[in-house]
Design goal:
Structural class: alpha/beta
Largest sheet: 8 strands, parallel
Bound molecules: zinc ion
Number of strands: 8
Shape: globular
Distance between the termini: 14 Å
Order of helices and strands: EHEHEHEHEHEHEEHH
Number of domains: 1
Length: 251
């Protein structure tokens, strides 16, 4: 299995998370950057651990003090051999005093970095689906190496639009929650489907409320597989192939 989105640096016991990968059935974990500082640490972590890769990027709620100089540093960092994507980037309007213009500006500048370096990107979208879609549509010329909608939670009316932009759709533990609609999963293009944990956040059923771990990606695969009528092994194979195609620098 591959966990395509985990915040390894947020674990108190990250050595344990990485050390137990083999017994947990994990081939690869992709660590996710959210600031310039943790992106640097993510690159170090990936360089020290063969089966850990990383993204670098500035999370939408953390963009307000970001300068062009910071973005230049991020771009340099993104040239490291184990950086597999730019992310997580996007828009998040859930906090009270969000600055939409600044968020969009930095989102687009990071899409430009991904395009210049020939890397895919990972999109975080919260309470902002209209603007995320519109920003991507307006910058379609920058989507040459694909992108993904991480922790997809926009329901059935939106996924086709994102797929039509050439993006992948990634599900985390949220797809296992009892209240969430899963009926549209059967309509998703299987070759555009990715799985992730977003750990240590967002534990899947049956572990809701507890610290999430990369190995719980198993429950995401299980839930989707049962919903669309595939076996666990069949879907595990498909999502692993998809992850390696998307994050093409994974060996
Ligand atoms: Zn995340």
């Amino acid at each position: 299995m591959i966990d395509t989105h985990a915040h390894i640096l947020s674990f108190d016991d990250k050595e344990d998370v990485i050390g137990s990968m083999k017994e947990d059935g994990l081939d690869v974990i992709v660590n996710i950057g959210t600031t310039l500082e943790d992106s640097k640490l993510g690159v170090e972590l990936a360089n020290e651990n063969e089966n850990v890769y990383t993204t670098v990027g500035i999370y939408p709620e953390l963009v307000y003090n970001i300068t062009d100089d910071d973005l230049n540093k991020l771009e340099e960092l993104a040239k490291s051999k184990k950086v597999v994507a730019i992310g997580e980037i996007g828009l998040d309007y859930h906090a009270e005093n969000f600055d939409k213009d600044k968020q969009i500006e930095i989102f687009v500048k990071q899409l430009e970095i991904a395009d210049r370096l020939g890397l895919p990107f990972c999109v975080h979208c919260r309470n902002a689906v209209d603007d995320v879609y519109q920003t991507l549509l307006n910058n379609k010329h920058l989507i040459n190496h694909s992108g993904l909608m991480h922790c997809y939670s926009e329901g059935k009316d939106w996924f086709r639009k994102f797929l039509d932009l050439g993006l992948y759709i990634s599900f985390s533990g949220n797809i296992t929650f009892k209240k969430n609609d899963r009926s549209f999963l059967k309509d998703i293009d299987l070759n555009k489907l990715l799985v992730e944990t977003d750990s240590p956040y967002l534990s899947p059923e049956p572990f809701r409320g507890r610290v999430n771990r990369p190995k719980n990606v198993r429950y995401v695969i299980e839930k989707i597989a049962s919903e669309i009528g595939l076996s666990f092994d069949e879907l595990e194979k498909i999502t692993t192939e998809n992850a390696k195609r998307f994050y093409f620098k994974i060996r």
